[in-house]
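re: ur question from yesterday

yeah so i grabbed the chain u mentioned. its 117 aa long if i counted rite. heres the sequnce exactly as i have it in my notes:
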Amino acid sequence: VLTYESKNDGGLKVSLFFHEETFRHLRTEYERRMTHTMPNQPGITQQMGDAITKLTEDFSDFQAESGVTLPHTYKLTLSIESLNNRSLQDWVFTLSKFSFNQKIDDSQFDVRTTSKS
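ran it thru and got these structure tokens back, copy pasting raw so excuse formatting
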């Protein structure tokens, strides 16, 4: 496991999980903790509790594709918890087709915006 914590006050912590023998990237966890406060009296604040947002990516079902071992299942889990609200959502993607060295039209990267008068 490799962990990263932001030096600024963003409250973001990232953990990367790798298989100990193959070094395959198995999981990433992103967690952000924010403390909510409410003014109580001038100069004094009252803590209202933490809000925790956690996003987890899981990679599995590794198979060889054109000589490269890639995950074929990708699971994304989003958890949001606060004092009076909890939400949990899951998405699972099964990857079945991989393409390599495909020609990409340069226009795919044209992100210029047009101004409207």
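noticed a couple things. The longest strand covers residues 44-65. also The two ends are 52 Å apart (CA to CA).
anyway ttyl
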